[in-house]
Every structure is written in structure tokens, then in C-alpha cells.
Amino acid sequence: MKTLARGECRAEILQRLRRTRPDSARQWGRMNAHQMVCHLSDCSRMALGHKRTSDASSLFSRTVIKWLALYAPRQWPPGIVTRPEVDQDVGGTKPIEFAADLKEAEELLVRVASRTASEEWPHHPIFGRMSGTDWLRWGYLHTDHHLRQFGL
Q1: pTM over 0.85
Q2: Which of 9, 94, 106, 132 has its CA 20 to 30 A from that of 3?
Q3: Where are the domains positioned within the chain?
């Protein structure tokens, strides 16, 4: 199972992230590559508890959807709607300078990955209470989803 808790998974996802270019072409969705990099930073801030997001959870999303998203053996599909606070067209961080934003995304992802599963973690806006193990799995899958969006 791929997770940011495993060194080889962290190395693989960071290597793919570093291949992102401002002109990387999206294969689905509406974000450009620079917006995606800023979105990943905002979501890392969310996982660290530094960026608050509105709650959109339900009993179904906190149980069935959470389990399917984190532990079912399939890739996340295109078309998942994000929360407005981490949407670069709404309340997310606006892209400024690509190289600096990419470096920040990498540093934030490393900070998320360096947290221990036993630490206190924030609630997820869709999945509610998540363990550190869940968050580290989510961090890998979320980053993988967006890198695949750009063929990386």
C-alpha cells in the first residue's frame, strides 16, 4: 500500500512532483500546472492543521467513501470537486513564481510526511476524523491523483 509513511513512496512522489513544469499539460480538470502546485501546498497546509477548510462531511463520506478512497485498490477518478478554501480560483493560494511555489509544495509535503501517525491530526473536510495513518495514505493518493492529472 502506497503511503507517505514509506520512504520509497515519499521518494517516488517527490521525484514526480519535481518533474512538474509550468507548461505541463493537464489531461483533465481545469487547473493549470502552477495552480496544481499551489493546490498541493494548500492541501499540505490543511493536513498540517495550518489551513482551515469548511466541513462538507456526512456519515456516508466519513465511512463508506473514506474507506473506498483510502483503501480500495483503485486510482481516484477525474472530476472530484475540491473545497473552496483549497481551490485556486476561489480561496486557495494564488500562483506567484513557479520555482518558488514548487519548492514550497515539496517542503510542505516533506513536513506532512515527517509527522508521525501517532500525532494529533486535523479533521478532513470530507472524511472527518482521520488517523495519522489515514492522512499519510491520503497525502500519497491526493498527490498521485494530481500528478497523474498532468501525466507525471
Answers
A1: yes
A2: 94
A3: 7-149
